[in-house]
Fold this sequence. Notes:
The complex is a heterodimer. Chain A is mainly β. Chain A has strands at residues 3-5, 10-14, 19-21, 24-26, 32-38, 44-50, 56-58, 64-68, 73-78, 87-94, 104-105, 109-114. Chain B is mostly beta strands. Chain B has strands spanning 5-7, 10-13, 19-24, 31-37, 43-50, 65-69, 75-79, 88-95, 104-105, 109-113. Chains A and B meet through strand 5, strand 6, strand 10 and strand 11 of A and strand 4, strand 5 and strand 9 of B.
Amino acid sequence: AQSVAQPEDQVNVAEGNPLTVKCTYSVSGNPYLFWYVQYPNRGLQFLLKYITGDNLVKGSYGFEAEFNKSQTSFHLKKPSALVSDSALYFCAVRPRRGSSYKLIFGSGTRLLVRP
Amino acid sequence: GAGVSQSPSNKVTEKGKDVELRCDPISGHTALYWYRQSLGQGLEFLIYFQGNSAPDKSGLPSDRFSAERTGGSVSTLTIQRTQQEDSAVYLCASSLAGETGELFFGEGSRLTVL
């Protein structure tokens, strides 16, 4: 079965410190990979995606993510966290094969950045 | 508007009633998705429309749930004989055609079944 795992329900980090939000997937082939963010009382917003090429992808708000094929992971990172980064983060995958382009989401990780 | 619009933003209904949730996607987006987000849960895929192709209904949890998309634009998600476990935020998203396109989400419709 195709699935996405976000092993941490919550990640706590101090402002100014680097942050990592983990994501692993179980999808055949090389899927397309995405990160979305949901701020309080707001809809989900696209952050970044991996399609092909360089394993390090840069996205909005200073976030980046590293694709690791051997570990089937796509961890979200940021060198220096801001309090305003506190939100709910979702990893998502879309298989490259098949007739449906549905996006499969993980359970989400809440990021809390303390001042 | 420029974004995905959903209505109503909040709906409170009694168990057993039918509800309709509406989604107006971004103009020109041929793909439309419905997801469900329950409290403390991730996003559960419900249904996907792409142009004139047959929709992917593989995520609909029961035959009480149905959705249609008229004229390739507005979509309506209908839940018949609502149950308390249907309480959730129902999210609609649209995207351009193609498998690499990102989704643009609406603010969601919060459904509470009493």
